[in-house]
Amino acid sequence: MPNCKRRWSPWHDLPLDEMKAYGPRLSPETIRLIEGFLGIEEYVGDYVLEGLELFRNNRTRRNLQLQWGAEELKHGTAWELVLLHSGARTEEQIEVYLDKVREHRWSVKNHAGADTPLGVTIYSMVQERATFFN
Fold first, then answer.
1. Is the dihedral of CA 26, 27, 31, 36 positive or negative?
2. How many Cβ atoms from other residues are within 10 Å of residue 31's Cβ?
3. Which of 102, 107, 103, 105 shows the shortest CA–CA distance to 51?
4. Is residue 35 included in any domain, yes or no?
5. How many CB atoms sit inside 10 A of residue 88's CB?
6. Position 107 confidence tier, pLDDT thresholds 50, 70, 90
């Protein structure tokens, strides 16, 4: 992304023309991977909600959770725009996929050890590193 900045906007800063031009080069495997990342980002609301409940009485941690969620929501939007503008998926296909993802609610209870502030912090750290690596 040219002129990379912290306060980026997927609606204004992504190279949509390049997505259209180079989108047909995406392999089916890459498209599925992008779609999977979109699905993961769809759980941000669930994750933030549980974090807000966990950090309810800690203003700093609560506010960091809110800021993190705001940043993460842009990732899901970016993946959706890649799928749309590359021609890999239609709006209808994305909506059907997201409806299927939303049938399941993410919960920290599904991740042993992540039910404490330290566990949530470690989970977040590992998840972010994995996302960066991918």
1. negative
2. 16
3. 107
4. yes
5. 20
6. confident
> For residue 16, is it within any domain?
no
Q: Is residue 68 part of a domain?
A: yes
- Domains of the chain: total: 1
| pLDDT at residue 69 greater than cutoff 70 | yes
With 70 as the cut, is the pLDDT of residue 1 above it?
A: no
Average pLDDT of the chain, as a whole number: 88
Q: What is the mean pLDDT of residues 30-43?
A: 94
CA distance 60 to 62: 5
Rounded Cα–Cα distance for residues 38 and 75 (Å): 8
Residue 12 lies in a domain: no
Residue of 56, 63, 55 lying closest to 116 (CA atoms): 55
Cα separation, 66 vs 24, whole angstroms:
36
Domain residue limits at 44: 26-133
- What span, in angstroms and rounded, lies between the C-alpha atoms of 96 and 86? 18
DSSP state of 109: G
